[in-house]
Specification:
two-stranded antiparallel sheet
């Protein structure tokens, strides 16, 4: 099969920026040095670039996980240009294709099933998309967004301007323009790009799959540190419209924290959150399928299979009852429709169902753990 033509501009750009970053940046550091203010500015620029992609390009525009004030959208648009990852319109179009056809070697733009190199950067080095490159039929909603289209039409100008003016301003303040250009311009650009690329590559190779095993996406807490919370990728691929990636309070997800914080001052609104019932059911169903597959090689397969099905059915039944009462309790409390006696009765029922589900969940997890430890025949 004939390979698509090489995009020499992209090859030259990625090669030159990478080589100069790993040579000139340390050389200048040894010869002249970078002061603390420059390192602080570098970190700030890294977060501005990265979170313009994660909060803006990804969660706002590609997935519409929340709504943002126009001022915030402009900040995202400029940060996206600063990141040099194409326009928000094009980026979102590629990403929606990725989610719709994930792992499909023909239609997923950066399918992880084609290997690490392809999904990380190789897909941008050849004309794999061909005539479909400028097909934006899947982002017609974004074509109605004036800020997205303004950035798309002026992307090259905005990219040049932000990547020169921001380091220039930092250089004026710190008194060392060359150092600012190397740290806040060059090194920041290379690192922020490859950290984003890790979401397409490593996050589909390295980690766990607690929510679904129907695709290659993985949850990885370490990658979350490099990608501003995007490392919880298995969760994201099944609940893409959720404004969160890390759903637990201890999950490192600064993008989630920023979006939530902005909601308190009116800069973000309509934050979409996946119901807990759907999340728990997805975890149970995924574990059920994994254990069922393991049982295919066990000695007493049918007996264990029957037990697995029974425990799963009981778990889902208790789960549904618990969340049904929980939802009813929350709705009635919001409407202030509960009398004291009704509240007490409903709270007691809620507490009992919650405890019953938690007990069954522990039974369920222990049973699956014991089965998964069984030696294969």
């Amino acid at each position: 099969m004939k390979k698509p033509p090489i995009i020499w501009l992209n090859v030259a750009f990625f090669t030159i920026t990478f080589i100069t970053a790993i040579t000139l940046v340390p050389w200048y550091g040894f010869e002249v040095g970078y002061d603390a203010n420059l390192w602080i500015a570098f970190i700030a620029c890294m977060f501005y670039s990265g979170m313009s992609i994660t909060a803006g390009y990804h969660r706002l525009w590609a997935h519409k996980a929340y709504q943002a004030h126009p001022i915030l959208e402009v900040i995202y648009a400029l940060g996206g240009a600063f990141s040099v990852q194409n326009s928000a319109l094009h980026w979102s179009s590629d990403h929606r294709l990725h989610h719709g056809k994930v792992d499909d070697i023909e239609h997923d733009p950066y399918a992880a099933t084609r290997g690490f190199w392809f999904s990380h950067i190789g897909w941008m080095l050849r004309e794999h998309q061909g005539d479909t490159y400028s097909n934006y039929n899947n982002v017609r909603d974004l074509q109605k967004n004036k800020i997205v289209m303004w950035q798309h039409k002026n992307y090259l100008l905005l990219t040049i301007a932000t990547n020169l003016l921001i380091p220039l301003c930092i250089g004026i303040v710190t008194g060392d323009f060359i150092a600012a250009l190397l740290l806040c311009g060059l090194l920041r650009l290379v690192l922020s790009q490859h950290f984003t690329f890790f979401i397409n590559s490593l996050a589909h190779i390295w980690g766990t799959r607690p929510y679904t095993e129907t695709n290659t996406a993985r949850d990885n807490g370490f990658l979350a540190l490099l990608t501003y919370g995007e490392g919880y990728h298995n969760f994201h691929h099944i609940f893409a419209s959720d404004y969160r990636n890390g759903i637990q309070w201890w999950h490192y997800d600064p993008t989630k924290w920023m979006i939530k914080s902005f909601s308190y001052v009116g800069l973000t609104s309509n934050l979409k959150v996946t119901p807990d019932e759907r999340i728990e059911k997805a975890k149970a169903t995924t574990l059920f399928a994994k254990t069922k597959s393991c049982l295919a090689n066990s000695a007493n397969m049918q007996e264990q299979m029957d037990r697995l099905q029974t425990e799963y059915d009981v778990l889902i039944n208790k789960l549904q009852h618990y969340y049904k009462v929980r939802k009813r309790l929350i709705e009635m409390q919001k409407q202030k429709m509960l009398k004291q006696c009704e509240r007490s009765a409903l709270m007691q029922q809620y507490t009992e169902l919650k405890e019953a589900w938690q007990i069954q969940n522990q039974v369920w997890l222990k049973f699956n753990e014991s089965v998964l430890k069984l030696p294969a025949n």
